Structures are given as C-alpha cells and as structure tokens.
Amino acid sequence: MADDPEKERFLMEFGQDYGYPNAPKNVDEIRATEFKRLNGLVFPFASFAILNLVYLDHAGATLYSESQMEDVFKDLNSTLYGNPHSQSNCSLTTGDIVGEARRQTLSFFNASPGEYKCIFTSGATAALKLVGETFPWSSQSTFMYTMENHNSVLGIREYALKEGAAAIAVDIEDGKSAIQIIPHTLQRRGEVGCRKKEQTSDTYNLFAFPSECNFSGLRFDLGLVNAIKEDSYEMPGPTPSHSGRWMVLIDAAKGSATSPPDLSKYKADFVVVSFYKLFGYPTGIGALIARNGKLPTAWHTMSLALYVRKALLNLRHVNGSRVCTLYGVNDLELLCNEMGPTVSFNLQRPDGSWFGYREVEKLASLSNIQLRTGCFCNPGACAKHLGLSHPELLSNIEAGHVCWDDHDILNGKPTGSVRVSFGYMSTFEDARTLLKFIKSSFVALPPQPMSLDLLREKPFPASTEGVERVATRYFLKSITVYPIKSCAGFTVESWPLCSTGLLHDREWLLKSLSGEILTQKKVPEMGFITTLVDLKLGQLIVGSLRCKEKLQIELTSDQCIDERQVMEIYSQRYEVQGYGNEVDTWFSTAVGRPCTLVRSYAFQNHMCSNKNRSMGICRDLEAQLNFVNEAQFLLISEESVADLNNRLRSKLHKGSNERHIEVDPSRFRPNLVVSGGKPYIEDGWRSLKIGQTNFTSVGGCNRCQMINMTFTAGTVQRSNEPLATLASYRRLKVSI
C-alpha cells in the first residue's frame, strides 16, 4: 500500500464501497480469475493483439465472465433441450428452464409473479416496439416522454402519432412542493383514419423515461411512476389533458446493471431490460416486464465514477482554465445519489475551444482504453446537455453530420461527447489509467526546458515579400499514386491528371462479402499488396507475398462482369462495378479473408473547404471523387516530417518507453510531397500552382491510426507513435 499513495488516498475515501470488501471475492480476485483476457486480447480478424486493455464501455455492453461461459457450455453439452411447444421430456426441460428464467427475472426487479409477466424478446428495442404496437392509442391519447431517451423509446412516438395521439417531450425538475414537468412543443398529425372518441376514463396515455440516462449517467427519480399515476406533479403552461388512465414505461436497459427498479415500490406498467448489458452474454435477448390487469445498489461502480468525476472537475490547464465539462449533475454533493456509473464529458483547450471527441477516442484506443463517443443513440439528451438549439441541429445535418462520422466540432460546438462507464469488474487501476491518459494528452502544463539542440533553427532563406506572396521557392519532390484504397502505392516522376485527381488514384477498393469497406485499420495485410499502373500496357498490376503470381487487371472495363450499381461510402454516392471469381479469389488469398474488388465510376460529390481555417466554417466544392476520404489530393512537406522526427527523438531522450521510430513522409500516404519552406507552412496555403495547374486547398486531413503501423519483412508492427506525439502539439485538423 505504501508503494501506491494515490490508491491509498482513494481507499481512504471509497474503501467501504470499492472492491466488494464483504463479498467472497474482491474485485482483484474477480479480475484475475474471470477476466484474464483483459491482460492480453487477440483480435483474429484484425491480425493484432492488445495487452492490458482498459474497458470502459459497460453502458454499451458489459463483459461476460469466464466461469459464466464455462457453465453455459457445460450445460449445453450435458443437457438435451427441445422445442418447448412439444411434449417430449427434452421439450419439458426447455419449458422448465425458461420458466425459471422468467421467475428469476421478475425476482431481480422485485416484481410479484401475480402482478407482472416477463415476456422475452430479441432485445430491449423489440420490447419497446411491442409496447408501441399493442398500446391502445386513440386520438385522445398522449405519449409523454423525457428528453433523455434512447432512440428505441422515441420510436414509440411514431405508433402514437399514426393513431392520432399527441406526443410531447418534457424535462423533469424538482419543484418546491411536487415534481415539476416542463413541456416542449406538442406534436400531432392529421386524424384521418384514427380511432376517434371522447376522452373518458377508458382513454390510455403513456409516459416513458429511463431509470438512468445512457448519455449523462443521470438517474431519474423513480417516484415519477407514482407522481404520474397519482397526478401529483406540476406542469406549467399549455399541457396535455390529465384525463384518462396514465400508464408508465421505464427503460431500464442501462440502469438495471447497477440499480434495477424495485417494482414492489414503483409499480410501473412496463419495464424493458437487455441481458447483455447485465451479463455480457447472451446478446439478442431482452425482456418486457408488463404489469397484469429494490434491490441494493452496486456501490462499487459508483465509487469509481465519483472518483473520476471529482478528478475531472479538478483538472486545470497551466492558465487556470478548466479542462473538463461534465454532463449531468455538477454539484459534487449530489453526484453519488443521483448519478449512475456513467461519466459523460468533453475536454477543452486552455483558450476554451474544444477537443474533438473523435480525437479523444482515437488517442484512447492507442492507449488501449476502450470508451465510446458520440450521442449514444440518445439525441434528446445529447442536444439538451450540449446546449444545441433546433436551428443548430439542422445546421449540423446540412453540414453533412451523421452518426459515427468525424464531424465532432461544428460551428465551435461539440456534436457529441466522450462516455466512460464502469462495470462490476472495473478496478481503481482502470480509472487511474483513464485519468493519466487525459492528463498526459490534454492538459497544458508549464513548458519544460528544451535542449540547446532543439532550439537551433535550420537556415531559411529570408523573404522580403512575405509569406502570402510565397517568395520562397518550393519543390515538388515526389508523386505517389494509390490505385487501390489502403493498399501500397507507387511513385512516379510525372503522372496525368483527370477529373478525379491523379489518374486511377484510389479508383478501386476491396469490400467484404457483407459490404464492409476493407482498410488497413482492420486488415493490415492490405499494406503488403503492391500496385502499379502501366499506362502503356493498359493494366493495373498487383502483387502479394501470399500469391504465387501477380495479377494483371485490364484498365478497360471489359474485365468487369458485374452490373454497375450505386453504393454509398462516407456519405458519398458512387457507381461501381465488380470483377469475376478469378480477381476476387486472388485478393481473398492476399488478405486472408473473402472479399471482392470493385471499381469506381465517380459521381459528382461534395468536398468541404475550410476556407478561412476556423473550425466549423465550410464552403462546398463540386468535384468528382474516387474512393478518397476527404479530397482528391493529400499533400505534405518534408520539413513538417523532419520537425516531427526531431520531436520523436526528443521524447526518446526524455525517457519514453517507446522505441525510436524514424517517420518517412510515405507513412502519411500523401500524393504530393513538397519541400522548401518552414515546417507546417502548408497549413496556411489557400491555393498553389504546380506547372500550369492550379490547386485549391480544402483544409486539413483527419488523422488516422494507420500512420502508427510499419510494414517490414512481411510483418506489421503497431505503436502509439507518431500519432501520440502529433496529438501533443498538433491539435487542429491539419495537413500532416
């Protein structure tokens, strides 16, 4: 204990709750026996391994234990189960175990079997759909739901509106004498074909809320159940009628893992649950607990979440500004009781601007930390906590923002957040690793004295005309073409231009049989596929260490045999055509998995030009794009790469555990490499002219983890560099 004073301080504050002190096994023993795979995890389809993984996405799915899976396999191997609708002995066995599972599920929520039924479904979403489909909606009904709700709950709104019912989103606040419900705009559609009747005691209304918000971790007061049913709440302004019978639905998919609703005390009519969020296995099964005609909270996870919240709120940059903005309750006196084991936040720079959550996620992954970013399928909570107005949401959509993209900052505001969530097997060491990662990667500290060698500048020709006139002479050092997306390229002295950029650049790609686009991120073997376009022969020639013969593909479309079809990639539409079995078999052998090669016949697509280099301000450029991520060309300067290598060497001298890696410009897969200026001078270029051709800059390129992979002697090596070093001083989307 004396060797770890930080943990000792943690245990002084949380020792009575952390680690299950009164249980047969403490958390360290649980981790050592049930979750050994966290110490070393192999991803067979991605051809790499991760050591000492920190898993902090329990709100998405928790982890199954090893003994759990052993018991499942032992039971399946020793017991014969039949169709429960038959009458054989093995069928009766199935019926018995299903009945016992129903009984245990009801017991978990303290629900009386005489008062509630457990209906197994394919998941929480299916359970919610069942409620929406079977609820007795009428034109006099109201569907009321809190802003903090999962998309699956919001889907019920469509069933209500279709039947002519009203729908209204609300916020919940604590009033002086009663719970206060703040309404938003009432929604209603035309009532043609709806069941019309006067509002009577037979009119049914539905109120839906989560027991715990999967965005912020905020726990809702389950007293809402009784308040709604007893009409003991305050609702200012125009409100839906309180008449008729109100029924209550609790989305407990997230909250059940640590604090399941006690249905003997809060008699909700419907509760939905997802079992993989409780046990990690099995997936594809949930339950609807429906009422006919509290277990103790898991304080272990709450102690970790509270520790992380306090630490994040206390982080400060060197100028005293706050590093972290938490979403949910910021009053530390209320954090323990009102918040679950989920922490949602965004990080800020010393000047108050935001770090993009996608950058946080990428860097976390490099540190073997598994977390989640975005809006987590909860658009209401996302907009509410981020302070996004309706016009701002529309503006983000018009700018092309969709779920899972890299538009994490638009118009100076985050479009989502970072979420970490703890499970019953999470440890103090997991929490500490997260905090160390945030401190080392995002907190501005007082500058350290630099060595004399690093302060010396290289001689640079002075320009009397200023940077904007570009009096300095620049040189185009290399041109590289990458015919197949994510495969190796080839360098040439000169190359034709066309409407899509360099002729045949990224004109082909590989996709899996399920339609997934293959890249080096998941299939690093693609980096060993060599490519060459021979314009005289009219062929694309590819080779691989795994294939005996090289493959020649004709540049004319005669070799394509599949019909042309339209596919969407990165929000862009392409007309593509595939090849026959010979080509697909060759590439499947080269990458070690079934795949197909397709060729692009580019549509007219949009590029976003960051014209004045301020975040979130774009103008659209019409251009034909092949299978590129952002623009037709990627450019980098030798001086920028040289500066990065100087920083990598300096980091090694300061005692970094990383082995030294000399970075070549090709690591960034540029089409054009230039030289002749100061490091990063290309950041400020609006346009440039090479020969008689004019080029327009569309801004910086998003960084990718592919730059951390090296390909030598038929093997792929991964490290944290150079992306970790870049992240320490290159915080905007820039050319390098």
TrEMBL record:
Single GO molecular function: molybdenum cofactor sulfurtransferase activity
Reaction(s) catalysed (UniProt annotation): Mo-molybdopterin + L-cysteine + AH2 = thio-Mo-molybdopterin + L-alanine + A + H2O
Active site as annotated: 377
EC number: 2.8.1.9
UniProt keyword annotation of Transferase present: yes
Coiled coil region boundaries: none
Cofactor section: pyridoxal 5'-phosphate
Enzyme category, top tier: transferase
Record-listed N6-(pyridoxal phosphate)lysine modification sites: 277
Keyword Isomerase annotated: no
Pfam families reported in the protein's UniProt record: Aminotran_5, MOSC, MOSC_N
UniProt-listed GO biological process terms: Mo-molybdopterin cofactor biosynthetic process; monocarboxylic acid metabolic process
Keywords: Molybdenum cofactor biosynthesis, Pyridoxal phosphate, Transferase
UniProt cross-references to Gene3D superfamilies, sorted A to Z: Type I PLP-dependent aspartate aminotransferase-like (Major domain)
Residues covered by the MOSC domain: 595-736
Family: Belongs to the class-V pyridoxal-phosphate-dependent aminotransferase family. MOCOS subfamily.
Biological role: Sulfurates the molybdenum cofactor. Sulfation of molybdenum is essential for xanthine dehydrogenase (XDH) and aldehyde oxidase (ADO) enzymes in which molybdenum cofactor is liganded by 1 oxygen and 1 sulfur atom in active form.
Record-given protein name: Molybdenum cofactor sulfurase
Organism for this UniProt entry: Sesamum calycinum
Lineage: Eukaryota, Viridiplantae, Streptophyta, Embryophyta, Tracheophyta
